[in-house]
Fold each of these.
Amino acid sequence: MTALLEARDLTRSFEVSQGMFKSRRTLHAVNGISLDIRKGEVLGIVGESGCGKSTLARMLLGLLPPTGGAITLDGTDIRSLGRIGMARRVQPVFQDPYSSLNPRRTIASIVALPLEVHGIGTVAERRKRTLEILDKVGLPQRFADRYPRELSGGQRQRVAIARALVMKPELVVCDEPTSALDVSVQSQILNLLMDLQRELGLTYVFISHNLAVVEHIATRVAVMYLGRVVELAETETLFRAPRHPYTKALLASVLTPEPGQGIPETGLGLAFPDPLNPPPGCPFHPRCPARLPQCGTAEPRLVRLERDAVACHLADPGHGASAQS
Ligand code: SF4
């Protein structure tokens, strides 16, 4: 499968104020991530809140410039495509359908807005396309002239999906698209996204803290921890035989969406570390039940293992061993 989007050594840092009389600190939200997103796949990205997945999503969408590294789309650096060029090919679906829809616009006007901004079609052609896409996401055409406040949460998320698809993008970046919805509605939206992916041949990046959801929809999964990818594998492999101790902990637990709450029910003890003051060596070492002597001083590299990759000294025994001596 060829790569649609490639991220190389992507970093993003922010200067964070510590208060009036304290110096500013640097937060490395994304720290040296390299990823290929293959045409037609659903790449799941999982990790606790605060691990950098939403920052990564905004960079993949071209909404946030990286501090370092580069992103290419079909071989072209996205900086040369610009916001407009990117929006034609890469579209987002965000978590909160309440805040992402303009309450003063009708549903038809919200969905047609990207076509209008990009100068695509006549008014009549845009209306026709809007009604077609509403139909595709399972909304009756009579909803076209209603306002967001008249719709349920699930219906609003269908509108957000319609708005993302109206431009016929190749890649859709879904950032926690079901998290704000009632449990009963979540599976409907998930199934809709899967149906649309198959029918339209879309490629998805699907970001979630919910492992069950990711297992259901993703073909490959990247696990993030403190701004890094620590494991990347085919979904079936990752859930059947995880290699990284953090992935194993995630699979043994239920993630909470709250940063600082850490991983409950795993017996790891310590909460999520302070991203402004990350541990030296392997960033997971203070919580890792399998840590080696070198883990506190030497950061593991991401080791490629046939189709998968893992960043752990256990998978790369020679690397970092000298750091303990
Ligand atoms: Fe645990 Fe060491 Fe592997 Fe980090 S490198 S996950 S501390 S064993």
Note: Residues 3 and 16 are 35 Å apart (CA to CA).
Amino acid sequence: MSDQLTIRRPDDWHLHLRDGAMLQGVLPETTRHFARAIIMPNLVPPVVTLADARAYHGRIMAALPPGAEFEPLMTLYLTENTDPGDVAAAHASGLVKAVKLYPAGATTNSASGVSNLDAVRPVLERMAEIGLPLCVHGEVTDPSVDIFDREAVFIDRVLDPLRRAVPGLRVVMEHITTADGVEYARSGGDDLGATITTHHLMINRNHMLVGGIRPHYYCLPVVKRARHQRALRAAATSGEARFFLGTDSAPHNDPAKESACGCAGVFSATNTMSCLAYVFEEEGALERLEAFASLNGPAFYGLPPNEARITMTRGQPVDYPAKIETGAGPVTVFDPGHPLLWAVSDAPV
Ligand code: DOR
Ligand code: ZN
């Protein structure tokens, strides 16, 4: 087996960068390896309009480490007041690559999300016309639905009816966590994609809950049973074009995570590529890592793959920090629970 792997530079199709001191602290962790990322709009207040997206894009560019080559792909946060005209202008500007649907109350900073899908129908119809993808946080918020079932119920109650109601709408099922998500993604044509996070490939709910509760493994959608993890691994390593990497790397400082009511989010930007190489090697699919991390995402979004390459080398355990220090406090890096042997040995600055 070769101990070197050269692939096109990867992109992250679902990333939280936050703002201010946190943005400044976490951005280098992504730009070190990734060329582009779809930037989530769940700031406080959220990124709702083209003007908001332009301003946020400017703040990200201003925070780039010297020499970094990185393109933030902006998104708009869909609300019941979103103007279809503004969405079309955002698409035409080239700056905004997707609109994000958060069911109201589903996750961090989702209070301005959508409760009534009929209210956003004109926006969705315009998006279908112009080919702008909708990125979907796929969980129902109905309190009577068990948190481990919220993705599967969302598919039946919300996603499938929505896709039937707005034919032609390009949809990304964000961070799928279940075999049901994998199966539904496979039922679609090339108008349906799905991102999978690094951590959902690495851990299941036993890792989070057995032998003590591990708050740094808590995220939304929450990690599920091992059989779902196996389905996600099979999907990610299949090479199928509909599945691509979205880390959902979502920094919260340690006090916010290590709390009686801790925030949801796993911060994996720092060691994602090493984790992925571990998973793909274990699945005997290293030759398909490039499809998942570097080819399938751009193809779905109609963008060219990156020309630059990174080289990964298998050797001594990779040295990466357990935490990064930011001006907004320490942020714990995702702990895969064992050494990682694949390092990114060579990447453009
Ligand atoms: O774990 C998560 N963290 N899931 C989300 O959907 C949001 C994210 C965040 O913004 O912290
Ligand atoms: Zn997210």
Note: The longest helix spans residues 150-165.
Amino acid sequence: MPATQKITLHNPLDMHLHLRDEEMLHNIAQSSAKSFSGAIVMPNLVPPVTTKEAVIAYRSRIKEAIDDEAFTPYMTLFFKPDYSRAFLEEVRDEITAIKLYPAGITTNSEGGVSGFDVEELRETLEAMADLNIPLCVHGETNGFVMDREAEFVPIYEKLAKAFPKLKIIMEHITTKESVAALDRYENLYATITVHHLFITLDDVAGGMLQPHLFCKPIAKRPEDREALLRVALEAHPKVMFGSDSAPHPKHAKENCGCAAGVFTAPVALQLLTELFEKHNAPIENLQAFVSTNAQKIYGITPLQKSVTLIKEPFVVPAEYNGVVPMFAGEEIAYSIEEVNVG
Ligand code: DOR
Ligand code: ZN
């Protein structure tokens, strides 16, 4: 990307977002709704979103929180291995994907899957493939924290082989092993966050501990970040931007027992623009990474929204309604100049 002063992104999509509920939903929903056309909304509420009624009710709470902002919440269900074909047919039109969490692996995932027995999952996953419902996966084992994602790759491969018609999205990938898996199976795709393109474990724990950069999966090694950067900057057709923006109240982060999650929604597009410019990547690639690839993979047509970014320093606020964003108090290179709907 040339060192342009201004760029316009069309219909940006965030393919992995935590919008939460109640007060937090009201506090943070605008951060995404103002600058994105839509987002895949994660279902890990308490209790998780597992019924058609819960999806419909959560969507209407989101709509209320975003007021009249032009923004589509693409809804998801929390995967349960006992979802029947009849249930999936009934809920199909209300959802865009289903999110699978290994049991207990991260925030509010206690009711997830333990053991990945193909036969146990067969009825549900075959029905999802037939109904063209993508499976989004949090791919970590409960092994050593730096190895959890790489250890999960054989599970991705097992699922990809057993269910070749199922679209499997490896969510928020952080390792070179996951990047390599992308090209081995036609039905594997991935989302990448902005924070994993910027930081490594050194930024989290190499100096003073940085709770606001602590998330799951944890940021890995420089060579992992390099592998992620390569496929993001070239806009590999199987990768999409998914922020995994995961707000927690300041006190839950700056605490003995820090909650996992980085809040990036208000600064994601500015940081991505800075990154693509820094690496001289074409602006078309940024457009593909933040929208077009996702449209093709998911078969969605987003609301029309253009976001113009200008190369003017922006000092990231210390807090947004009690939530500390990534790079709080620091100066970043781009600002959002204007957003046009339609
Ligand atoms: O860091 C994370 N925070 N990773 C997840 O998978 C969940 C998320 C959250 O919901 O807070
Ligand atoms: Zn997430």
Note: The chain has a mean pLDDT of 97.
Amino acid sequence: MIICKDNIFVLETKNTHYVFGVDKFGYNRHLHWGRKCDTNDYFLKEIGDSNSNHSMLDEYKQEYTAFGQTVYRGSAIKAEFADGCRDILLQYNGYDVDGNNLKLYFSDKVYPFNITLNYSISDDNDIITRWTTIENKSKDSIFFEKLFSAEFNLPSKKPYTFRNTNGAWAGENLETRNTLEGGSFISESRRGTSGHNQSPYFIAYQNADEKIGDVYFGILAYSGNFKVNAERDLFHSTRVIMGMSDFDFKFELKPNEVFDTPKVFCGHIQGFGEMSRQMNKFVVNNILPKSFSDKALPVLYNSWEATWFDVNSENQKALAEIAAKIGVELFVMDDGWFGQRKDDHAGLGDWFVNKDKFPNGLNDLINKVNDLGMDFGIWVEPEMVNRDSDLYRNHPDWAYHFDTRYSCELRNQLVLNMTKKEVQEYIFNCLNDLLTNHNIKYIKWDMNRPFSEAGAENLDCPQMLWYLHTKAVYDIVDKLKELHPDVAIESCASGGGRADLGALSHYDMVWTSDNTDGIDRMVIQKGFTLLRPTKAMRAWVTDIEGINKPCSLDFRFNIAMQGSLGVGGNLTKYSEEDLEICKKNIALYKEIRDIVQFGNLYRIMDIDEDEILFNQYVNEDKTKSVAFIAANGTRFYKKSVPMLFAGLDENKRYTLTLGNETYEKSGAYLMNVGIELEVRGVDYNKIVIINEV
Ligand code: DGJ
């Protein structure tokens, strides 16, 4: 519900109030974000403590600060008008409420330029969607140096700790915690995609854990360069500004153009666990493309770690035959099937079947896969080109470049200038032809390097390429999905380099990490599930057994079954016994995948903090649950550990089997007394099925 009275706006979510007002000077001032209060009590206090060194405006908690006047702290928007004026002075023009959507209208006092602050809520959760709309009503272009999506003010004057990541390729989602006492904390990408390193979100808290404590968070839905900038100022106020990064940023808004910034989803919730559960549901119900959001994702096989670039008709058919026998539903052929692709030096850009590898064409393999009862999927990397490719030989100017510089290669490839219409058309046509001429049900869209020499001579304002590239990718994906609604598309970028909520507004799922080591995945997957849905997290069981960290096939299944399961090992080398293990686990996964992909996740024990991973998924009506327990060795003779389950109904009775014992207990017992378990050995893993009696 949204309540608007005397220029005070109360966004009432399931458990919280988010409150702001517009004061008599027209400033949008934040008032409260937290527990619900009597809505009549909110008011705007006048503050006017200016002196020669700090200004009233710097003290104001604003919903969206425009650079101008005496603003010295970070601002959310900075513009340059045609006459050179770089100061925005806003006036308030009113608001509109439409159900749970609120728009607040502002315009510059002199220039015909409008800003709308947009808010949207739902009654059944605590998540608020925010974004900003700008509109140029003048005859000249307006250029923006900063154009963030939203600004947040945190209530406490005490320092907040910010959870974010400092990850890498094969080490995505590795968490950091920074307590911000003064100055700023920045999480940013300057690579062209959201990247593997820092994350486009803030999670700010004081004294919170999985179960309790005030947690404030905001996550950006954008796959390009982003910036999250938190500041704790001289008044000890902590605010966060986030959106598209202002790195190498210049955004031109032409006359009569309107632009919506990327959205931010934010909330105030008690405990990290509830934050993840609300966001999980929110993303599945509201953000993921509709075609597959409510369907359980199939168990897939991916050829990458089995045959690398060396794919051909024969070896893929051999893998497919075994994959079908163990219960795989979707067979995905990875890199290597096109152009002159023998390794990573050649072929990118030439999206035509390699006749030496597939003398009878792709359909011959696809028919075989379909006859085996599986769907067929294929790998592409559309935004890239190798210098050794027909595409590059014919169109060297299609890659980003500066005429006077030699463009640097990473993985022997260059980034295509996706802002060019002809490049967009070429990519779209190649992919559309591929889908039209073959029974392909799945595309893995990869992107294996960051940008460099980011020159785009075709643009009046070349810095726009950072934004326009991302937009072009989204547009092509959307168009393909419109024409081929039964094709699911996965976002991959050298592992989890584009696994943000912007990607998940267009793609159906993401590749989490090239690191498929079961031990490492425990940590990588935990970071993933903080603000992103389990369903979208692709997880494969491969042959990486961990030389220093041995773990069995069952262990690897235990970890991969906590997301959308895939298999990626070289099945032709598996023993009959190993294939039986695969078959058994895949069959089990099919039974529990609805609980994993659509249920509520409780992170009960943490592999780093507790030496034991204990994750439990519970279905919506609390009748079925599955818990995953895994450890890579425990120290100091912990004889037995009480496994305290979570998320169950206290009054329901459940059965479960743990070790050799079967128990029938109430939810209250399982959650408060728990079951003692001896966790022993470096390869400890258990999957516990809990059913209402
Ligand atoms: C990087 C991806 O993350 C891998 O899964 C694989 O598809 C390779 N690229 C192929 O080049």
Note: Residues 304, 334-335, 379, 446, 448, 492, 494-495, 511, 514 surround DGJ (CB under 6 Å).
